[in-house]
């Protein structure tokens, strides 16, 4: 690995758990705690590490992530300590799919989302992605590999090879390919 820490990031519901599963299958060690268990929305698990949620207040756990892969939602990338280097595999997904997936997840929890709320969320996500892209381009501590969720489902082996090359690791790309479950590409737009 070139960076100190490998980060899988993206918007919520963008395929970050899928990429964590791929990297685990490929042979990398993950930093997770298993507190958030698999459910109907992520039947193969969330691959989260709960201290990540408090990253803005406490980054003392970051040294535990050295040489490992940790999932950090895109809005928290700003909070990562400046004295380390990060290789970021950034999942990109069509915003219509992201919003549809979130709507289904919230409905399972008994929460109804109004159309106006969906549109406001879309606009917030769009602004966030533009601002984040501009900010990341100015940060020398980050190396970034954008990975489209739809492209992984179209050709997971090719995506696995790209990720392996980016990380400078000899990963089991065949196992990474096999870790992608096509049945979990729900709310497909293309």
Descriptors:
single chain; 190 residues; Rossmann fold; four-stranded parallel sheet; 6 helices; globular
What does the model show?
The chain is α/β, with parallel strands linked by helices and 190 residues long. It has a single domain, classed as 3-Layer(aba) Sandwich (Rossmann fold). 38% of the residues lie in helices and 12% in strands. The protein has 6 helices and 4 strands; from the N terminus they run βαββααβααα. It has a 4-stranded parallel sheet. The longest helix has 23 residues. It is globular and about 45 Å long.
Count of spatially separate domains: 1
- Report the portion of residues in β strands: 5-15%
**Sheet with the most strands?**
4 strands, parallel
Which runs of at least 5 residues are low in confidence (pLDDT < 50)? none
What gap, in angstroms, lies between the N and C termini?
A: 34 Å
Indicate the percent of residues in helices. Answer: 25-40%
| Biggest sheet: strand arrangement | 2-1-3-4
Mean pLDDT: 87
CATH class wording: Alpha Beta
Give the overall shape: globular
How many β-strands, per DSSP?
A: 4
CATH fourth-tier homologous superfamily: P-loop containing nucleotide triphosphate hydrolases
Number of helices: 6
What is the helix/strand order? EHEEHHEHHH
Question: Rg from C-alpha positions?
Answer: 16 Å
CATH domain fold name: Rossmann fold
Q: Write the CATH architecture name.
A: 3-Layer(aba) Sandwich
Quickly give the structural class.
Answer: alpha/beta
Quick overview:
With 190 residues, the chain is of the alpha/beta class.
Structural topology:
Blueprint: E1 5-10, H1 16-26, E2 69-71, E3 86-92, H2 95-108, H3 115-137, E4 142-148, H4 149-154, H5 156-167, H6 173-178
Parallel strand pairs: 1-2, 1-3, 3-4
Helix pairs in contact: 2-3
